[in-house]
Amino acid sequence: MSKVKKCLFPAAGYGTRFLPATKSVPKEMLPVMDKPLIHYGVEEAIDAGLDEINIILGRGKSAIEDYFDKNYELETELQAKPKKLKLLNPINDLIERGTFTFRRQGAMLGLGDAINKAQSMIGDEPFGVVLADDVCETGSEDGVMKQMVEVYEKYQCSVVAIMEVPNEKTESYGVIAGTEEESGVYRVSEMVEKPKPEDAPTNLAIIGRYILSPDVFEILDRTEAGAGGEIQITDALKELAKDGKVVAYKFKGERFDCGSVDGYMDAMNHFYTKLKNS
Ligand code: G1P
C-alpha cells in the first residue's frame, strides 16, 4: 500500500473577488490574522504526514515561493529582538518539516488542468490536494487531511471531503451522490460540477480537500472542458466513480470559504478570538 506523502496546492488563480488587493498580492497570501491563507493548508497537510509540498503557481505569485523560504536578512536584522524573531517560528517550523517544489501552470485551463500539470511532480503515487481558499478548523479533532488519510487507508481509492450546504448554494460547488457505507463515508455514484439547485442530486458539496489516486491523471489527459469552460477535476473523478473508485467523507470540523468576502471575515473573526484566548 502506498503511503500518501505528497500534497498539491493549485495556486495559479487570479483571486478576482479580492481585487484590487489581489492585483499584486497572491490571494493565497492574504492574511487570516497573523498567517497567510496558504500557511493553514500547508500546516494541515504536513500534520497529516504529507510533507512533500508541491505548489502550482501562476504569474505574479512569487511571494508564495519566498514565504516558504528562509529570509536570512530579516532574521539577521531581528537577532537583537528575540521577541520579534520568535514570530517567525510558525513558518520556520513548516519550512523545516516539509520540502517545497514549485511549478507554473502556464495556460490556466481550470482545476483539473492545474492538477494534471503536476503529474511529473507526483508520479505514480496517491496525493493530497488542498485548495488554500478553504481554511478548516477542527478543534481537538485531527486536521481534515489527517482524517482523510485514515479514510484513504481503509478504502484504498480517491477521497473527496464533503459538507452539507443549503440547497440554494449547490451552484458554487461540486456535488456528489452515493450510498453511505459507514457513518459519514459515501461510495460515490454521481458527481456534478456546480449544478443549479434543481439539478443537484443532493446537497453534499465537495470542499477543497482531496486525496487522489494516480489513475486520475490518465483520465485528466482526456477530460474536456466542462462547467465554466474549464477542465474540472469533478468530471475526471466522476469517471472513476463509475467503477466505485471514489468515496466522499463528511469531515469533522468547520470550513471557512476564504475565497468569498463573508467566509474570509468569518475566518478572521474565528482566528482572532482563538488567538486572543490562547
Ligand atoms: C472548486 C471545485 C468544486 C469544489 C470547490 C470547493 O471550485 O471545482 O468542485 O466544490 O472548489 O471550494 P472553485 O471554488 O474553485 O470554483
| Helix proportion | 25-40%
Oligomer: single chain
CATH topology value: Spore Coat Polysaccharide Biosynthesis Protein SpsA, Chain A
Give the rounded overall mean pLDDT.
96
Instruction: Specify the overall morphology.
Output: globular
The CATH architecture designation is: Alpha-Beta Complex
| Major sheet strand order | 8-11-9-10-12
The sequence of SSEs as H and E is: EEEHEHHHHEHHEEHEEEEHHEEH
Cα(first) to Cα(last) distance is: 40 Å
User: Which ligands occur here?
Assistant: 1-O-phosphono-alpha-D-glucopyranose
Strand proportion: 25-35%
Describe the model.
- The chain has helices at 37-47, 62-67, 72-77, 82-86, 89-97, 111-116, 119-122, 144-155, 215-220, 233-242, 261-276, and strands spanning 6-11, 31-32, 35-36, 52-57, 99-104, 127-130, 134-137, 158-164, 174-182, 185-193, 204-212, 246-250, 254-257.
- The radius of gyration is 18 Å and the shape is globular.
- The protein starts with 5 loop residues before the first strand and ends with a helix.
- The protein has 11 helices and 13 strands.
- The strands form 3 sheets. It has a 5-stranded mixed barrel with strand order 8-11-9-10-12.
- It has 278 residues and is an alpha/beta fold.
- The chain has one domain (6-277): Spore Coat Polysaccharide Biosynthesis Protein SpsA, Chain A (Alpha-Beta Complex), CATH 3.90.550.
- It binds 1-O-phosphono-alpha-D-glucopyranose.
- 1-O-phosphono-alpha-D-glucopyranose (G1P) is lined by residues 111, 131, 134, 173-174, 193, 205-208, 232, 234, 259.
- 1-O-phosphono-alpha-D-glucopyranose (G1P) binds at residues 111, 131, 134, 173-174, 193, 205-208, 232, 234, 259.
